[in-house]
Design goal:
single chain; 204 residues; alpha/beta; seven-stranded mixed β-sheet; three-stranded mixed β-sheet; 5 helices; 12 strands; globular; FTHF_cligase-like_sf; metal-binding
């Protein structure tokens, strides 16, 4: 921050806390309505429409909802991969076979996650995806994503880069979570687009 800028920018922890607080004030109807709009917006994107495999995740709590999108992708015959959190915070992957194929898993003292109950495909399975949906808390005008803070998806992005994979990187957020600036690190890889209930914004 320069001395000419009198406005201090929030750090990652503060920004994450403020946005999660706002999410927790949403009603179940708000979350459901937004999830339907997010699914419609995402499904209309050319990169999603032509995808054969999509790596996604199951939203929990007041996160922007993903289940409507997962079911619509599966109905189109798209292979949907879902993450399984490993003890070292890396991610394995399994295939989504409908809501009944999910199991709730609590990792330590953290929130319960919904994970696929079937066969484990290995951490490298994500490199086969044409589109990767990244969970996020915020994104800024440069495409810098603020994640949940566990670092799991930093590993996923590094794995994609090592493999030479270039899937479309998308983040699903509420409209108010597209912010002026996310504190970034030099290694942060920008996302290609953010999908919100009101539209799609592309960054590269």
């Amino acid at each position: 921050m320069s001395h000419d800028d009198p406005t201090p920018r929030p750090d990652k922890r503060t920004l994450r806390r403020d946005i999660l607080t706002a999410r927790n004030e949403l009603t179940a109807a708000d979350v459901r309505e937004a999830a339907e709009a997010l699914a419609a917006r995402a499904l209309a994107m050319p990169e999603v429409a032509r995808a054969h495999a999509v790596a996604a995740y199951v939203s929990v709590g007041a996160e922007p909802g993903t289940l409507a999108l997962l079911d619509a992708l599966r109905a189109r015959g798209v292979r949907v991969l879902l993450p399984v959190l490993l003890p070292d915070n890396d991610l394995d992957w399994g295939e989504y076979a409908g809501e009944s194929s999910l199991t709730r898993v609590r990792h330590g003292g953290r929130m319960e996650l919904c994970e696929p109950a079937g066969e484990r495909l290995g951490p490298d399975a994500v490199t086969e995806a044409d589109v990767v949906l990244l969970p996020g808390v915020a994104v800024d005008g440069r495409g810098t994503r603020l994640g949940r803070g566990g670092g799991s998806y930093d590993r996923v992005l590094a794995r994609l880069e090592r493999a030479g994979s270039r899937p479309a990187l998308l983040v699903l957020l509420y409209d108010a979570e597209v912010v002026e600036r996310v504190p970034g690190e030099p290694h942060d890889l920008p996302v290609d687009a953010v999908v919100t209930p009101s539209g799609v914004r592309r960054f590269r």
